[in-house]
Amino acid sequence: MPPNERLRSALLTAGISVRQLAEEIGVDPKTVERWVSTGRTPHPGIAHRAAAVLREDLAHLWPAIEQGRRRSRGSGELVTAYPTRSSAPLDMWRTLFERAEQRIGILVYAANFLHESWPDFNDLLATKARQGCRVRVLLGDADSPIIRGRGAEERFGHGIESRCRVALMHYRPLAMSSGVELRVHATTLYNSLFVGDDHMIVNAHVYGMNAYGAPVYHLRRMYDEGLFDVYAASFEAVWEQSRLPGEDE
Q: Residue 61 and residue 63: Cα distance in Å, rounded?
C-alpha cells in the first residue's frame, strides 16, 4: 500500500509528531507510523479521534472509511427497488400514506396515477391532515418553460403540461383543508418523491422516458445524512422555491 501523504502533511501542518499524536489518541507510536508509511487504515473510532486532534476532515485523511460508511448506510436504507414504476406494487404507495402520522410529502410534475388508482386519495390525505399529519404537495407549473422542456424530452408534446393541469385539478379541492399545503414549482426534477414519515418512494427520472417506465426505490430513514436525508433535502429546496397556485411569480 502507498504511504498516506495526506496524513503526513496533516502532521506537519499541525506541528504534531507521530509520538505526540499517538499519545493524544492512546495508541502505540509504531501504529501511527504504519498509518503514515504503509497507508494502513485505522479503526473508524480511532481515526475520528486522530482527525479531531489534527483538525482535519476524516474523509480527507482516510477516504476509505467515509466511503465504507456511506455504502453501509445506503444499503441499510434501501428497502427494495423496482426496475420501473409500473412494476412496483400499488399497495406500496397506499401503505406509505396510510401509515404516515407526522408528514406526507409529494414532489412531482403530475403523478396522476395516484388519483387514477385510488379515487378516494384526496379523502385519505384530508383525513391524515385532520389527524395532525402535515401534508405538502408540490406539482409542476404547467406554464413554466421547465415543464415544456420536459415534455419535449419525453417526446409527448404538450402531454406533460396537460397532466400537470389535471393534477392541479385533482388536488385543488384539498387547498381548503386545514393541514394540507398545495404549491406549484418550476424546477427541474431528477426524481419524483413520495414521503410518509420515515419512508420514501423515489421515482427516478430518465431522459426521454415517462416516469412510469423509470426505476423506483423504497427507502427507510435509518441514519443522519443518509440516502433518505439527501432526497428529503431536495424536497425542502424545491418547497422554498415554490408558490401557491395562481400566485404571480
A: 6
Distance CA 168, CA 205 (A): 21
Kindly report the number of other CB atoms within 10 A of residue 64's CB atom. Answer: 11
Bridge-based pairing state of the strands 191-196 and 103-107: antiparallel
Contacts 24+ apart (CB under 8 A), 2-8: 2/39, 3/36, 3/37, 3/38, 3/39, 4/35, 4/36, 4/39, 4/61, 4/62, 6/60, 6/61, 7/35, 7/36, 7/61, 7/62, 8/36
pTM of the model: 0.69
Distance between CA 157 and CA 89 in Å, rounded? 29
Burial class of residue 92, CB neighbours in 10 A (0-12, 13-18, 19+): middle
**Whose CA is closest to 239, among 107, 97, 149?**
107
pLDDT digit string, tens, across residues 135-183? 999 999 988 887 777 766 665 555 788 889 999 999 999 987 788 999 9
Across the strands, what pairs with 80?
218
Question: 214-229 pLDDT, tens per residue?
Answer: 999 999 998 887 889 9
Q: Which of 239, 104, 120, 103 is nearest to 184 (CA)?
A: 239
The residues facing 140 across adjacent strands are 185
State pLDDT tens for residues 186-239. Answer: 998 899 999 999 999 999 988 877 788 899 999 999 888 788 999 999 999 999
Does residue 66 contact residue 51 with C-beta atoms inside 8 Å? no
∠ CA 221-216-152, nearest 5°, is: 125
